[in-house]
From TrEMBL:
The keyword Membrane applies. GO terms for cellular component: cell outer membrane; efflux pump complex. InterPro entries: OMP_efflux, TolC-like. It comes from Xenorhabdus hominickii. The keyword Membrane applies. This is ABC transporter permease. GO terms for molecular function: efflux transmembrane transporter activity; porin activity. Pfam families: OEP.
């Protein structure tokens, strides 16, 4: 089932299709060569990131504030019902017969009774309820802004983690090629030195460069492991150390969005209109 949240008259898809998530997880766990795309990582983060899940619950709590405030303004309808199926009544009467003798008569009867009432109340003017409604509505609007900010922050965190993995993989591939090149050069210099055509200085310099590149390779491997762990915390599933990711250079039609903003005031107005963290702040005069 898809779960939607309505925010600012828009429907935001929070939980992608379970089948798509299953296919992504199966392709990753099976060691498939299919690369993890940025949209797939974002879809997984929407479902599994604990920070964003907390933001969803906070938004739901904020919407309840709006409902509670509206409930105080609406008419109140109450209904009561009482049923007594067994009521006993004792009747006693006194009379005189023809002889003038006083006669006492007693009679008991059983009967059922019920009572029901429907009461509708609506205050004409209740300033206190109206003030509480406005306060709760403000809380709901604040929760909307915080949720939109959390959504944007999630996108930024996913992009940063994804790019960090791609960058570390590129650096590792580059340094690995350097290590292979220095390793071949070291073997070549050692052969030349053994045959009397090379010098010990060339071997020492190549050995030093090879050791430095080898140390850099270990450092980059640690950075790649850390980047994959950060991305793994966002997507919520284990990721292999050799996780393939898509690169922007692989996209056939990648276009950079051009922003015609030349002055600081233009950037400020754009942030005031679209940044939920400063949404509602009055612009400077």
């Amino acid at each position: 089932m898809l779960k939607y949240l309505r925010i600012a008259n828009r429907r935001i898809l929070l939980f992608p299709l379970c089948s798509a998530m299953l296919l992504i997880g199966m392709s990753i766990f099976s060691g498939s060569s299919c690369a993890l795309s940025l949209t797939e990582a974002y879809a997984l983060a929407l479902q599994n990131d604990p920070t964003f899940q907390m933001a969803i619950k906070e938004w739901e709590a904020g919407q309840e504030e709006n409902n509670l405030g509206l409930a105080e303004l609406l008419p109140k309808l109450s209904f009561s019902y009482q049923n007594a199926p067994k009521n006993w009544q004792k009747m006693e009467s006194h009379s005189e017969n023809r002889l003038g003798k006083r006669i006492k008569e007693e009679r008991e009867q059983q009967y059922g009774s019920y009572n029901s009432a429907i009461i509708l109340t609506q205050p004409l003017i209740d300033f206190e309820a109206w003030a509480r409604y406005q306060t709760r509505q403000s809380y709901a609007l604040m929760s909307d802004a915080r949720f939109r900010a959390a959504s944007q922050q999630l996108a930024v965190r996913v992009v940063n983690s994804y790019i960090a993995v791609a960058y570390a993989q590129d650096r590792l591939a580059q340094i690995t090629q350097q290590r292979i090149a220095y390793e071949e050069q070291l073997k070549h210099n050692q052969k030349l030195f053994s045959s009397g055509e090379g010098t010990r200085t060339d071997v020492a310099e190549t050995q030093a460069r090879y050791s430095q590149v080898f140390a850099n390779e270990l450092t980059v491997k640690n950075e790649l492991d850390a980047a994959i762990r950060d991305l793994q915390l966002l997507v919520g599933i284990p990721l292999p150390t050799d996780l393939p990711v898509n690169r922007l250079s692989d996209a056939p039609k990648f276009k950079i969005i051009k922003l015609d903003l030349k002055h600081y005031t233009d950037w400020e107005q754009l942030a005031l209109r679209h940044n939920p963290s400063v949404d509602g702040c009055p612009p400077k005069s």
